[in-house]
Amino acid sequence: MTDLSEFEKGMIVGMRCTGCSVTETAIYLGRARSTVSAVMTVYNKCGNVTSGKHNSGRKRKLTDRNKRVLTRIVARKRKQSLSQITSEVNSHLRNPISARTVQRELHASNLYGRVGIRKPLTSFPGECALYQDDNAPIHTAKIVQEWFAENEGEVGHLDWPPHSPDLNIIEHLWGYLESKLRARFPPPSTISALETALHEEWLHIPLQVVHDLYASIPRRIQSVIQSKGGPTPY
Question: What biological-process terms (Gene Ontology) are attached (predicted)?
């Protein structure tokens, strides 16, 4: 368990607490079932999985340029195996790297194995995944629309009215995360420090905050119905 990042530990706890099985969690993160169980044992005993230690970690074997190459390869050939990705990455490098190094770099970029996990309201047995967004500019950009065109048949895109109430509880979770980040002193002064701070604050969000947001969904829907689609307190 020592080679797990704090972020991966948080992912394990989050997935298990939202109903994913040990096997589903292990497959999704590319880890052994025993590793998932060990993390949950620590979490159930101590209430957290953070070590409280901050270190620079092992030295990266890929330059920033090579990391971008790796990301482009994965984005372009999403169904390749880890060994195939490693082989193609090594064709761009003077010093070959192992598949484990490639996997570690992908995990550091929040890219994991492509084993589907059932998610409520996004996919149904025998059907492709269904993606819903709120028409924000980042979702309607040309590059995003091209991606959906390239993946037609694998990922559906739910039509959404141009003017509609935003009932996505994740917005409130982002707000909670931002408030915790702004309360830090001194504030993060580099991109790396900001990333670390975000991961730390995300891992420390109380589950009760998430549960309360889920519990508010029926009230949100009823509020939209009562306002006939107009502004709501949420």
Answer: DNA integration; DNA transposition
